[in-house]
Amino acid sequence: MPTLSESQLAELGRRILAAAKVPESECDAVATHLADSNMVGHDSHGVMRLMQYVEFVEQGHVKPGSPIDTVVDTPTISVLDGNFNFGQVIAKRGLAVGMEKAKQLGTATVFVRNCNHIGRLGAYTEEAANAGFAAMMSVNAPGPGGVAPFGGMERRLGTNPISMAAPSPNGAFVLDMTTSATAEGKLRVAHQKGESIPEGLIIDGHGNPSTNPGDYYNKPYGSILPLGGSLMGHKGTGLSVMVDVFCGMLSGSGVCRTDLPRGANGVWLHLMQVDQITDLAEYNGWMNTYVESLKSTPKRPGFSEILMPGEIERRRRSEREQSGVPIPDETWRQLTELAERLGADISQVG
Ligand SMILES: NC(=O)c1ccc[n+]([C@@H]2O[C@H](COP(=O)([O-])OP(=O)(O)OC[C@H]3O[C@@H](n4cnc5c(N)ncnc54)[C@H](O)[C@@H]3O)[C@@H](O)[C@H]2O)c1
Question: Which of 88, 124, 291, 312 to mutate to test the pocket of ligand 1 (most atoms within 8 A of CB)?
Fold first, then answer.
């Protein structure tokens, strides 16, 4: 199992994408985003996505080099049309446009249509929080979904993630979570490793609970449960439906429908500049007091500490900066096979 540093992971991505004829600046935007996901421990959104992304380019779902058009442009609202370029390229542009506007009037909302997979949402909201914004972001995925609504046994919703971030003196708060019981990528990782998954995440094609990720990928297709599972899944379903409305209906990208082929992701991003809303010194003081209060909660048996949203990812990053990122043998085999097929030289990378 090779172990790679962040710069090696990014270089691996750049070389493979360049060999798939992706323009240089876009290779860099995508490759650095994937490497960053590995660094914070979200391997399901890391370099293992290169196989899927190259396939998307070859099938024409991703159109590298496509321009990003501005459809609506008011002082506080932008609607962008990504014309099916890489999601990371479009989302980075959306973030830059939104931050520029929010610096002027204190707030900005950006919608993106015709976008591809944007990867880990927390990367964008954390960047916004580190620049002084409170940020909310969501993404939906029109076309066949993977998640059954509460009480249902067929796929009708996407994993529709939500991220919220806010500046804090000792590290931004970064909530970044699916509105489903699990991210699809986590099932894929377990499936690749031949491992079972915890109970409560998926049902099989007959609506029965399952711990076998194969039940999701093989016919009759099972479904991911909404966040809250069989007991409280109405809450996850509700959040997911609203993500479809904000990201799909308002952006014009569309919502999850069984009668449509794979569609384009819709993105919603909302930014508020903290120092235009409240006194920054006071805010920072309150944030510190709040963190101390939560962390000093007496712990239940089996728990040694309380973590803030985004803290575990920051920890994994500092661990992986020391130790590197282990790439599972099967993922490495697929990456080297892909590089060989495309004629990409990755010999000095791994
Ligand atoms: N682009 C897309 O289409 C898409 C779709 C689905 C998911 N995703 C991404 O998948 C990733 C994984 O999502 P997920 O829901 O599996 O995340 P997760 O369950 O690993 O983490 C969810 C949140 O909980 C926090 N957290 C984790 N452990 C904690 C603990 N012990 N105590 C307190 N807080 C804790 C994390 O910091 C995070 O904010 C996300 O980065 C998401 O953006 C992307």
Answer: 312
Radius of gyration of the chain from Cα atoms?
20
Residue 293 has pLDDT above 80, yes or no: yes
Please state the pTM of the whole predicted model: 0.96
CB of 310 within 6 A of ligand 1: the answer is yes
pLDDT score of 41 more than 70: yes
Which residues on adjacent β-strands are paired with residue 166?
Answer: 173
Strands 3-4 and 325-326: antiparallel
**CA 43 to centroid of ligand 1, rounded, Å:** 12
| Overall average pLDDT of the 116-135 stretch | 98
- Establish whether residue 121 lines the binding site of ligand 1, counting it when its CB lies within 6 angstroms of any ligand atom: yes
Sketch the domain layout of the chain as residue ranges: 3-181+225-281+310-342
Q: Is the pLDDT of residue 5 over 80?
A: yes
119 Cα nearest atom in ligand 1: 1
Å from CA of 163 to ligand 1 middle? 9
Q: Which residue's alpha carbon is nearest to atom 37 within ligand 1?
A: 310
Share of the chain above pLDDT 70, in %: 98
Class of domain 3-181+225-281+310-342: alpha beta
| Residues with Cβ within 8 Å of residue 26, at least 6 apart in sequence | 17, 64, 65, 85, 86, 89
